[in-house]
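Hello,

Our lab assistant flagged a job as stuck in the queue for most of the afternoon. It eventually completed. Since we weren't sure the result was trustworthy after the delay, we are filing this so someone can double-check. Below is the sequence as submitted and the structure that was eventually returned. Let us know if re-running is recommended.
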Amino acid sequence: MGRIPFLTAFVTVVIVGVVPFVGGGGPGLTDSATASAAARSPLFASTATAPLEESVDVVAIASIERVTEESLAAAIKAEAKSLTTDSEHLAQKAVPKPKPIVVASTGTASVDQIRAAYASAGQSCPGNVGGGVSGAPSRSSSQGVAGTTSGDLASFAYAYNSIRVANCLQPIALSNFRYDSCMEERLFWMAESPSSNPLDGWGHNGTTRSDGVAARGCDGNLAGGSGNSGATVASKWWESYSHRASLYRPGVSTGGACIAFAMTHGGIDEPYSFTRAAARWTYC
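-- returned structure --
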């Protein structure tokens, strides 16, 4: 019986000391946001527990006659375990970013199929990305044909991504649009043809030029004509289903993808406004 007063006092201390942690509400959303700002992750408000309906003294007094050494030890162990679970901050864990929807491996998925795939996964279509586009050197060929400018590359990149997002496709990081000197060399070779026919030399690998000069440079998806810009050729490639499958690859993962681009202005007997452009999907 001599241990009952001691146990009673100990229970009162345990309950008074533990209850503020177990029953009290956690920090509010404002406090949590401030403490977690460096993590740059989404925050959710914690659910506060209901207030205690009985005072600490009543609980302690009501429990005196039922306390044993075994029940006290079990209660202490249970409370200690509950305090090791940080339920307050588990509710604030960052939500993983949804993975892009991939519905095809050949670039032949339709926009309707892709929209349906996002909807079935409970996701909305992707949004656009920010950032900047790397530059291009604005160099000229040995015969004075003007090459790719930074404006050409940027115009193409922004239009390309706008088209993708409008059609529920994941955008490409703007830093992954690259000026391609090898495709530019091929366009220079076409533009330097002495023929008055602007289509002389126009075409993919195996195409010849009327004067017999061997082709140089690299192949790609081609577009051109008077008054074109990076943006207009991006649109032309989307409107052509074969070029769309090659350059936009609907439904294919964009992980590690880079888009190479080049454009020339004018030719031997063509004005600056007459452009030739090439682009291809590659990997960084």
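-- support follow-up --
The delay was a queue issue, not a problem with the job. The result is valid. The chain is about 40% helix and 10% strand. The radius of gyration is 34 Å.
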